[in-house]
Amino acid sequence: MSFQNEIRATQSLGVAGEPSKTMHSYYNTIAGLASDENLKFGSFAFSSVDTNAKEWEAVGKNGGNILGVVVRDRAFYACAENATIPKGQPITICNRGNVYIETELIAKRGQSVEVDKTTGGVTFNDTADANASGWVVVVGNDTATRGVIEISTAK
Fold first, then answer.
1. What tens digit of pLDDT does each residue of 78-129 get?
2. 42-89: per-residue pLDDT in tens?
3. What angle do CA 150, 90, 101 make, to 5 degrees?
4. What are the residues whose beta carbons fall under 8 Å from the beta carbon of 141, sequence distance 6 or more?
5. Which residues contact 66 (CB under 8 A, 6 or more apart)?
6. Which of 29, 93, 113, 124 has the greatest count of CB atoms below 10 A from its CB?
7. Nearest to 43 by CA among 107, 113, 130
8. Do residues 153 and 23 lie in contact, with contact meaning Cβ atoms separated by under 8 Å?
9. Is the whole model's pTM more than 0.90, yes or no?
10. Taking phi first (over 0 means left), then psi (-120 to 50 degrees means alpha), and beta for anything else, what does residue 110 get?
């Protein structure tokens, strides 16, 4: 665990990868296994496109279908801020509900969360396009500085 290296003027909504149940109580997760070194808490997980992969294996880049957001359910192996989850470790993926993610982009309430399956990068758009994840911004970030936002599958 690292020492604090930043001071913020306002308190964060939560921690990236934490579930938030402020809007509704429905929250669903699925079990997975990290099959690359690109998954972090609060990042999107994708099905593996490797023909030898099992259906529960998930990747953080160059993936197939969007599975959901990796949540902090098993923090015993990656407690440090922005720590990657080691390949082969079990993960929990939120595929329905509300969850916190971190971004350095402006995100406005109601915008669609767009995910690039090649890079794992997240952007926000007023209208859903080909990269739509099925998630929308509930509590946004009005400045282009690093911050935690809340996203949801609830419409």
1. 455 567 898 999 999 999 999 999 999 999 999 999 999 999 999 999 988 8
2. 999 999 999 998 989 999 999 999 999 999 876 555 455 567 898 999
3. 15
4. 103, 105, 106, 107, 147, 148, 149
5. 44, 45, 46, 115, 117, 133, 134
6. 113
7. 113
8. no
9. no
10. left
Task: Answer whether residue 37 shows pLDDT above 70.
Answer: yes
User: Biggest alpha carbon distance in the chain?
Assistant: 48
Write out the E strands in 38-97. 44-47, 57-59, 66-71, 90-96
Amino acid identity at 126: D
Q: How far apart are CA 146 and CA 10, in angstroms?
A: 12
Which one-letter amino acid corresponds to residue 47? S
Instruction: Give the amino acid at 30.
Output: I
DSSP H helices, the chain, are: none
Structure tokens at 34: 């990290």
- For the chain, what percentages of helix, strand and coil (3-state, to nearest 5) are there? 0, 40, 60
